[in-house]
């Protein structure tokens, strides 16, 4: 029995002894595989960062232009809150054009249909978010009507704090020193704007209307922060699909519900009767009135693409950080467009906003670098494990 066992061991050893030159060939093949995997990973990272950069540009451009045009509408005689609310969602049919681009026809990612939610669940999600969006849009319109731009911007900055709180409980968002630093700096940069003079920025309003505008904007900021966290939750826990069509669906269908709800409010309130007078009293003329509303609507949809895309690619908190980073841009650009006075507070606010933005992006870079390092370590350990099994 002992001799038979030794023969079996000798045979097993002989079977697994590599031939001359075989180890070198295996090592070379492994190196080529690792290099190929790293190149694929680098290409994916570049594409991911390009998508993030594109969505960031859409968010900042759409938010800035829409805020400017919203202010222009009210400053030049527009006074219809429901119309200003309507244009925030009405241009959603333009999103349908994006359904026909090639990445949507031929998705490169794997979609697991078995994990797709039922139609009833989807209808419930889109309806809830749509009604939420309509209410939020109305609150923002009231705030923009009654508040100076700097005060409005300040209160809107609070949405970052609300979103951070909701993300912690709903999305299990982890807070690092860089993220906390970013949130604090971006919030302070917008708070500084309240100390500037508003004498050249808006028409005077009564104390009662100021309080109404303050409460509505604060409520809208809290609601917006909650809605972003809910959208991220739906992406991660309910929809469970990884293609751009899911992003477009999350824009189109809630916007459809919100637009219908706003139209009901417009006609139920009776404000539709004053639309003609609103256009005739517009200081820049009828054509400018229509163009202001049309481009405001388009700008909000550009913003929605960027905002929802960043939630899908990164997180709701990241999307809100970018949005808050863009808030100080409005008062600064107002110096050149509306000839507002430039002071030291605006400069400091802009510097702090950039600092906070860079802090958050650096944290995202660290997370990405850590992820790549872990993948590389796994690829390097895999061949070693195979070698150990062979010699055993």
Detailed description of the structure:
It contains 14 helices and no strands. It is mainly alpha-helical. The longest helix is centred in the N-terminal third of the chain and has 54 residues. The two termini are 22 Å apart.
Concise description?
With 392 residues, the chain is mainly alpha-helical.
Could you name the key traits of this structure?
single chain; 392 residues; mainly alpha; 14 helices; 78% helix; globular; disordered N terminus
Helix content: over 70%
Q: Please indicate the percent range of residues in DSSP E strands (runs of 2 or more).
A: under 5%
Instruction: State mean pLDDT (0 to 100 scale).
Output: 77
Distance between the termini: 22 Å
What would the principal axes of the Cα set say about the shape?
globular
